[in-house]
Amino acid sequence: MKNTLKSLLPWVALFLALTFAFNHFGGRTQVNPSISYSNFIAALTQGNVKQVSIDGNTITGLFGDGDRFTTYDPGDPHLVDDLLKNHVDIKVLPPERPSFFMQIQIGPRF
Predict the structure, then answer these.
(1) How far is 93 from 55, CA to CA, in rounded Å?
(2) 51 vs 18, 83, 84, 85, CA distance in Å?
(3) What is the DSSP letter of 109?
(4) Contact predicate 81/46, CB 8 Å
(5) How does 70-85 read in b/e, with b if 16+ C-beta sit within 10 Å?
(6) How far apart are CA 63 and CA 55, in angstroms?
């Protein structure tokens, strides 16, 4: 029993250290107020949207007054045209690639 605890102790310490490091150095996402897509379109057509970042179907952005927002694209095929027409600065993020460790866990697919 005593030997088992001695052998587990370094593993528990390593696990706690890795958990701390991940939580401390991991990316922090900023939470922006969520608005409805219809309110986003209304602000856009009124010229109140300054910039947007599109990540998949998630749209985060900045209103003209500096307030931030988040909304979700329901698949509007005219969204980019509307953004360009209203002189909005558009940033599109590339799809996220799985990490090296995730690829190892998944392994090759046959």
Answers:
(1) 5
(2) 37, 9, 10, 13
(3) -
(4) no
(5) bbeeeeeeebeeebee
(6) 18
pTM: 0.61
Q: What are phi and psi of 28, to 5 degrees?
A: -105, 130
Would you give per-residue pLDDT tens digits along the chain (110 residues)? 667 767 777 777 777 777 776 666 665 555 678 999 999 999 999 999 999 999 999 999 999 999 999 999 999 999 999 999 999 999 998 877 766 666 566 655 55
What domains lie within the chain, and their CATH numbers? 32-94 (3.30.720.210)
Beta strands in the chain (DSSP E): 49-55, 58-63, 68-72, 89-92
Tokens of 33: 């107020």
